[in-house]
Each structure stands twice: as C-alpha cells, then as structure tokens.
Amino acid sequence: MAVDIESLYRKHGPMVLRRCRHLLREEAKAVDAMHDVFVEILRRKDTLHGDSPAGLLLTTATHVCVNRLRSVRREPVDREDDMLLRIAALPGDNDAEARTLARRILDRLFSGQPESTRLIAVLHYVDRLTLEEVAAEVGMSVSGVRKRLRLLKERISAQMGDA
Amino acid sequence: MSAKPNPVPDWLLERLAAGELPESQAKELRKRLAEQGEESRLTALAQSNQEILGTLPPEEVVPEIERRAARGQRAHDRRVQPVWVLSAAVACTAGLVAMVALRRRPNTARPQLPTVEDIVIKGLKPSLRIHRKTRAGAELLAAGARVRKGDTLQLGYVAAGRRFGVIASIDARGTVTLHLPETPGPAAALERDGERALAHAFELDDSPGFERFVFVAADSLFTTADVTSALAAGHAFPTSLSTVEITLKKETP
C-alpha cells in the first residue's frame, strides 16, 4: 500500500501523540515515540491495509510505548499507570512475546496475526474498555479475551509475589 | 441503585472521531456521550488536533520521520547489527571508569563556541561519548581524533543527573544534524544514570574538514532550537545550559 505519510500525519498525528502522552506521561518521550510510530508504518508500508489506519496507529503506538516502558524506573502516578508498568515489565511469553518485544509484536501485528496479550491487557486495565469492547477491537471472542487476561493477571501476581 | 454508565474510553473516542467504527457502535458511543453530557470531548479532540499540528507541524515532523526511516534502512542495509551497538555499549561502560576530560579544540572554520562548563554533580560531569566501529569492536574517540567518510560512529552520553539533553553536530559545510532527540522539539528526557548509547549508529558522510558534536544538558526543559540555532549561527549557548563538545577532524580520502 502506498503511504502518504504527510496526509497520515496531518489526519492522525495528533491522535498518536495523545496516545503516547497518555502512556508515557512525559512530553519529550511522547513526541519521540510518536515519530517512531510513523517510522514503523513506513517500514511496513508494503503490508498495510487501508481500512482502519487510526486503529493501526493506535495499536502501533501502544506497542512502541509499552516497549519503552519496559526499562522505565519511576513511581506510577495512578492505578492505571501502575498496571501499565506491570504489564510492560512482564517477561515475554514463550510462545509469542519474546524479549525482543516491539519488533516481534509489530511484525505479528502487521502480518495480521492474533493480537498480543499486552495490548489486550492495556485496553482493558489501562484504557478501561469492557471485555466486549476489547474483543471487538482485537477481533477475538469475549471468552478468548477473558482467558488471555486471566493468564496475564496470574503472571503479574506471580511476579509481584502476591499470588 | 442503577450502575453509573462507563465513560467512553479515550481509545474508542479517538476511533469514533476518526470515523472508523461500525455505524452501530458509533451510534451507541454517541448516545453514551450524550447521556453523560460529554459530547464536548469530541470538540476538545478537534481543538487538540489544531494545537498539536501548530506545535509540531508536518513540515517539521514528516522530514524527521522520513530521515529516521531512511537511516534505519541504511543501517539495515549496511548490516550494522546489535553486536556493534552492544560492543560500543560495553566499551562505553568500560570507558566511563577512566573518563577523559573533554577539551574544546580551536576551530578556525567556524566562529568560537562556548567553552565547556565545569559542572560537577556528585563528582561527575555530563559527558559526550563517541565510539568508532573497528574490526575488533569499538574505539573511543577523543577530541581531535581523525575520522573519514564511511566511518561508523556510535554516540552516547552520561547525563550526570541532568534531566534533559540534546546532542547535535555541525560539519564544515554548516549542516546541523540532530542526534538526540532525532526530531526538532523539546529536548530529550535523559536517562540520568550511567552511560547511555543512542539508539542508532551512523556513517560519516563526505563533508570535509571537521565534524563537531555537542551535548547540551540542563535540569529544566529547553528545545532543540536553542541548540541548533546557536550551532548554525556560531553563537554561544544560553548560560543556563551545560555544554560539552568534541570536534573530530575529517581526513580527505
């Protein structure tokens, strides 16, 4: 798919920046991440579909930001931020989410494979989408989303030592 | 007691504003917004769009996106692998123990730039690190080191507690390049402890004479323009900013 990056930025750049601000909570880091979101889009222009660029950009922004949060050492500013930092800090799944997280997840995303557990968790626990809304966003069943979240929460509990 | 309806999440609000949701879902969300008296959130998004595009206009952002993408592709093509970055990081860490004093070298090609400030925080100054890729790994370059077209350099810094920073360079042709952040705007938020290598190594071009690198840091936020405009004009940096610099000499092939 041909990508007119200027048109894409004019239409969706502010949305991407707001997403990065929301997740990273620092303006300079958010601006930097926003650029990299569009770089990822450019890198994968040959595999893009044109039906929902905003959704793709929001998803890409989430992955880029969550990956950056993996190495962040700061106190969470609220409950959602606390959950986000815990999600970001989780080691990768053996089957899907390796430590080279961003590239692998983005490769999967752009090749149309099932969405990552991290995105599902961020949508539900951080963005406060209902299970039904998350399922609609990621194209899964509600029970599938629920199962992914249950497993992820168990891992977070185990990691925090409060299982 | 009836449950209070959930506010429409920002994620869905953005998707609604973008016009990408199925009609039935869009209708339901608009109804929720109306019931909660929050239709103004859509208006606020439109206003935010204008503000952001005013602050970060496409004329500035798009070239930077393309530059990053091209640089990433070049790095890929040159097979500059993480091993090199890792080697540089290891070398940087080792080099930190025996940090050399950075001295400004006279430069006759450009107006005088400010001298390095002697800033000491807990015994450590902000520091700029430049490593060159070698067959064996990487070598730390001191001010005045000779480099040539095609050398692959890895930049890094030690923030020494400073919160914000910019790394930029200028060559003898007067071309200013931003390395950190890679886009015009606010200075980058620095990792405040230890040696930090930048995300990408890069290859020197064929500009002759010299390549001057500056690392400007401060505890309060400043902008890349504070650095690039001073560099381009040969003016002194604002005194509130801490500055270190390394000038490398370019050898003609």
Provide structural commentary.
Chain A has helices at residues 5-24, 27-43, 53-69, 79-89, 101-110, 117-126, 131-138, 142-160. Chain A is mainly α. Chain A has a single domain (5-160), classed as Butyryl-CoA Dehydrogenase, subunit A, domain 3. The longest helix of chain A has 20 residues, at 5-24. With 253 residues, chain B is α+β, with helices and mostly antiparallel strands. Chain B folds into two domains: 10-55, no CATH class; 58-251, Sandwich (Immunoglobulin-like), CATH 2.60.40. Chain B has helices at residues 10-17, 23-35, 40-55, 58-77, 82-97, 224-233, and strands at 127-133, 138-140, 146-148, 152-158, 164-171, 176-180, 188-189, 195-197, 202-203, 210-218, 242-251. In chain B, strands 3, 5, 6, 7, 10 and 11 form a six-stranded mixed beta sheet that branches. Mean pLDDT of chain B is 77; it is low at 78-123. The A-B interface holds A 5-6, 9-15, 17-19, 22, 26-29, 31-32, 35-36, 38-39, 42-43, 52-55, 58, 123, 127-130, 133, 136-137 and B 6-7, 9-12, 14-15, 17-18, 20, 25, 45, 48-49, 51-53, 56, 58, 61-62, 64-66, 68-69, 72-73, 164, 181-183, 185-189, 221.
The CATH first-level class of chain A comes to Mainly Alpha
Count of distinct structural domains of chain A? 1
Number of helices of chain A: 8
Distance between the termini of chain A: 47 Å
End-to-end C-alpha gap of chain B: 82 Å
Strand content of chain A: under 5%
The name CATH uses for the topology of the largest domain in chain B is Immunoglobulin-like
Task: Enumerate how many helices of chain B there are, as a single number.
Answer: 6
- Beta fraction of the residues of chain B? 15-25%
Largest sheet of chain A: none
User: Which blocks of ≥5 consecutive residues of chain A have pLDDT under 50?
Assistant: 93-106, 108-113
| Reported CATH architecture of the largest domain in chain B | Sandwich
The helix-strand sequence of chain B is HHHHHEEEEEEEEEEHE
